[in-house]
Amino acid sequence: MATAPAPARFAELSAEGIQTIVDNKEYLKVHNLVESPPETWPSEDLDAVLGKFYAEVRIQKGEYYKKTALCALRCGLNRHFQKVNPGTDIVHGEHFVTSRKI
After folding, report:
1. Cα 100 to chain center, whole Å?
2. Rounded to whole angstroms, how far apart are CA atoms 45 and 33?
3. How far apart are CA 29 and CA 26, in angstroms?
4. Among residues 50, 35, 39, which one has the least CA distance to residue 84?
C-alpha cells in the first residue's frame, strides 16, 4: 500500500503568492509597522498579522499544528502581549475576532 507523500516544509509560491508577500510588506511599511514592535501596533493590524501567522504556521514536517498546540501557542503569545500591554487580549479580546476564527 503506497503512502501519501508528506507535505513540504516550505511552500512553493506562485507569482501571485510572491506578490501577496510583497503587498503585505508594503502594507506594513505604509502603516509604519516594519520598524515598530508588534506590541505597539493597532489591534486591527495585529489581528490581521496574527490571523495570517496562524493560517501559515506549520510543524517541521510541513503539516498543520494540532488544534491544542495552536491554542497553546496563541496563549503563550497572549501572555507576552499582556505583560507588555495589559489591555491586549488576543485570546478573548473583541478586536481579535478575525484571528481567532483561524
Report:
1. 10
2. 9
3. 5
4. 39
Is the Cβ–Cβ distance between 45 and 38 less than 8 Å?
no
The closest of 91, 65, 69 to 78, measured between CA atoms, is 91
Average pLDDT rounded to a whole number, residues 38-42: 85
pLDDT category, 14, cuts 50, 70, 90? confident
What's this model's pTM, rounded to 2 decimal places? 0.66
d(CA 95, CA 83): 18
Going by C-beta distance under 8 Å and a sequence separation of 6 or more, which residues neighbour residue 89?
Answer: 78, 81, 82, 96
**Grid cell at residue 68:** 491544542
